[in-house]
Automatic annotation (TrEMBL):
Keywords for this protein: Membrane, Transmembrane, Transmembrane helix
One Pfam family recorded for the sequence: DUF1453
Protein's UniProt name: Integral membrane protein
Coiled-coil intervals: none
Keyword Iron recorded: no
Key word Transmembrane helix present: yes
Protein species of origin: Stackebrandtia nassauensis (strain DSM 44728 / CIP 108903 / NRRL B-16338 / NBRC 102104 / LLR-40K-21)
Taxonomic lineage from the root: Bacteria, Bacillati, Actinomycetota, Actinomycetes, Glycomycetales
Transmembrane region(s): 6-22, 34-51, 63-84, 96-113, 119-139
């Protein structure tokens, strides 16, 4: 029952992320943007199934490759978003067609890692998925935060 519940939580999280990336929305504060990734990482660690006890080295390699891939894909996705500042200074974002491609690539890589683990008889638990999503979001949010800093502030007129 617990694996089914965890699977549903992960699916719901992915759906929320997809909806938030494609709609026009305000970019959150940097503090708010960096809350979810560490929470997901802690949940992943607490799952207790990050490393397969029967194949620890292969399991660690797959986990490491997954985290590095998630960081790269999240970085790429962060650069595909269209960012702009409105007249009031609020920063907005919206996904592009390239964002869709990055999301498809992300899902393909994650499924590929799971298939590789299955082919090598390495158990891949939900903890690895949580770590993947945490790294992916961390990279995206880092890129978005850096890009927001480069968007010029709206001109302020001073009346004399």
């Amino acid at each position: 029952m617990i694996p089914i519940l965890i699977g549903l939580v992960i699916a719901a999280l992915v759906i929320v992320i997809l909806i938030r990336r494609f709609g026009t929305r305000k970019v959150g504060s940097p503090t708010r943007m960096f809350v979810l990734p560490p929470v997901l990482a802690v949940v992943g660690i607490l799952q207790g199934d990050l490393i397969d006890g029967h194949h620890p080295l292969l399991s660690e390699v797959l986990l490491g490759v997954g985290v590095v891939a998630a960081l790269a894909l999240g970085t790429g996705l962060g650069y595909t978003l269209r960012l702009w500042r409105d007249d009031t200074g609020v920063v907005w974002s919206r996904g592009t067609r390239l964002t869709i491609a990055m999301l498809v690539a992300t899902i393909a890589v994650r499924l590929g890692l799971m298939a590789t683990g299955f082919a090598l008889d390495v158990a891949t638990g939900t903890g690895a998925i949580f770590m993947f999503v945490a790294a992916w979001l961390l990279a995206q949010n880092t890129v978005i935060t850096r890009r927001v800093r480069t968007i010029p502030a709206p001109a302020v007129s001073v009346g004399l």
